[in-house]
């Protein structure tokens, strides 16, 4: 994880992977934040799709944490330069369990993923079509949401049926990690 943090700060001077003002506390602000997901899930075999991975949050953090599991991580990131960073990090960290798809989420063939994650990608109503496209029928999504998560859930319920459990974030007051499953269109 230290090696990942140092790669991220090195590349951040050239491409904006995280807000430059947060680079001084990468560990607490970003890495510990993403590691919270590990308290709630022990993934089995199958694909874990991280959508809009950017600098690898939470995808790379989880691929490092779960590198001894049978889970195959796919990072979907349309920005070419960020995808180059992700591929470089995968190679330098020696992660055999991760690969990058450099395309728009909506253009990627359905991944049938057992697990999906996203952080700072879009409000929940816009994420729901992505979950519907890429999550397996019995899959689960782990979405890192900010303080407006409750109204996002209400807005998404206008068009979608889903099961949702909210775990309060331990790193950002008012934020939550949402576990979403059983998604179908109303
Ligand atoms: C605000 S950043 C968040 C990055 C990372 N998840 C994080 O928490 O730091 C959103 C990322 O999603 C990517 N992105 C946005 N829309 C996308 C789409 N439709 N398909 C693929 N990637 C997308 C952007 O290029 C960007 O890297």
From TrEMBL:
Q: Which UniProt keywords apply?
A: Cytoplasm, Methyltransferase, rRNA processing, S-adenosyl-L-methionine, Transferase
One GO process term, biological-process aspect = methylation
Highest taxon of the lineage? Bacteria
Q: Which GO terms describe its molecular function?
A: methyltransferase activity
Q: Which reaction does it catalyse?
A: guanosine(527) in 16S rRNA + S-adenosyl-L-methionine = N(7)-methylguanosine(527) in 16S rRNA + S-adenosyl-L-homocysteine
Job description of the protein: Specifically methylates the N7 position of guanine in position 527 of 16S rRNA.
Instruction: Family membership, please give it.
Output: Belongs to the methyltransferase superfamily. RNA methyltransferase RsmG family.
The protein in question is named Ribosomal RNA small subunit methyltransferase G
């Amino acid at each position: 994880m230290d090696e990942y943090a140092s790669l991220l700060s090195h590349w951040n001077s050239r491409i904006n992977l995280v807000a430059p003002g947060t680079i001084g506390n990468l560990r607490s602000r970003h890495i510990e934040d993403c590691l919270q997901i590990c308290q709630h899930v022990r993934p089995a075999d199958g694909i874990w799709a991280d959508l809009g991975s950017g600098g690898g949050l939470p995808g790379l953090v989880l691929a490092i944490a779960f590198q001894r599991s049978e889970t195959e991580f796919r990072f979907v990131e349309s920005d070419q330069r960020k995808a180059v960073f992700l591929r470089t990090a995968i190679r330098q960290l020696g992660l055999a369990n991760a690969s990058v798809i450099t395309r728009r989420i909506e253009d990627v063939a359905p991944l049938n993923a057992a697990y999906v994650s996203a952080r700072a990608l879009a409000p929940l109503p816009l994420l729901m079509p992505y979950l519907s496209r890429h999550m397996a029928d019995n899959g689960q999504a782990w979405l890192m949401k900010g303080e407006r998560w409750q109204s996002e859930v209400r807005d998404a319920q206008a068009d979608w049926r889903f099961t949702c459990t909210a775990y309060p974030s331990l790193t950002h007051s008012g934020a939550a990690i949402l576990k979403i499953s059983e998604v179908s269109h109303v």
